[in-house]
Amino acid sequence: MAADAAEEIRGTAQGTAPVPLSVLDLVTVGAGRTATDALRTGVDIARLAEKRGFHRYWVAEHHSMPGVASSSPAVILAHLAAHTDRIRLGSGGVMLPNHAPLVIAEQFGTLEAMAPGRVDLGLGRAPGTDGATAAALRRTDRLNEGADDFPQQLAELIRFLDDDFPDGHPYGRIHAVPGPVQATSPGGVQSAHRPPVWLLGSSGFSARLAGTLGLPFAFAHHFSAQNTVPALDLYRDSFRPSAVLDAPYALIGVSALATDDEKEARRQVQAAALNMVRLRTGRPGLVPTPEEAEAYDFSPMEEEFVRSWNANVIHGTADEVRTGLDDLQKRTGADELMLTANAHGGDVRLRSYELIADAYGLPAA
After folding, report:
1. Would you give the end-to-end CA distance of the chain in angstroms?
2. What tens digit of pLDDT does each residue of 97-118 get?
3. pTM (two decimals)
4. Angle CA(258)–CA(263)–CA(268) in degrees, nearest 5?
5. Do residues 26 and 62 touch, judged by C-beta distance below 8 A?
6. Neighbouring residues of 144: CB distance < 8 A, sequence distance ≥ 6
7. Could you check whether the bond before residue 179 is cis, i.e. omega within 30 degrees of 0?
8. DSSP 3-state assignment of 128?
């Protein structure tokens, strides 16, 4: 599986982009819009990304957030698989402690059967929500246990994906279906291929684990920028060649919004920042409009948060965004840039990816 997995993981830069470009979609829901609107926009973005040469499109698991409609990545990815043909689809990520490993192996085995050879399984160890919601998801209030057990959960999941529990293991006669067991059953013609596993993180824990296991690593620069370079250095220093990769491969998630007018970019980014202010202060809601953000009376503490948050959002005209992305890639040495466009309107987000594709001369079709 090594050569195939490495080819799926390592994308090819298109146009004048320094590295492959990809999309991270939170399926955001703006004020005055519905989850149906957001999911339709997701399909539009995935189709555009496929046409313009973006390497992959990921969705991220979140819960109990009115402005984020991506609580069920596997369901969304199945929908996207029916509306695309070539682009890689994946989770950025599934929060593994929220789920039984067998369930995730079954879900992504099903996705692999739907879209053979183009599914990624990105895994995180955070809950993707607040503590109370995490307790409801896991039916326990022992939340630290889930994070601490992440390496064991990961090992179990990979065993299910590969269908290779050792003899005598309690799960040795249990198989994730669809999966490799179908290829070894009498008359079996099922492909033994399974989705490549990525580890996601915003600190050093998953960076070190991904390096030790020889897995690809995705870092959440878009909300943990101060940790990006240290985490990538730790990943590279910890890396041990594996059957999956013979050298490190790291992508970073980047907040990037391009508009036709620089002023409009600032308006949209300010609205997204207000959404984060409300989320961080326990008041999650729909993504506000730029007009609502302009009328909002930010406290001094909130203003400081917004300044800090927006400092890590690359925004402006397409040329300004391209320059910012190029500089970030040089500074971090990232092997891939995964762009997330946070804005109130789906049309704004769609236009942003189109403008960035144009700025880099990505294929028109």
Report:
1. 31
2. 999 999 999 999 999 999 999 9
3. 0.94
4. 60
5. yes
6. none
7. no
8. coil
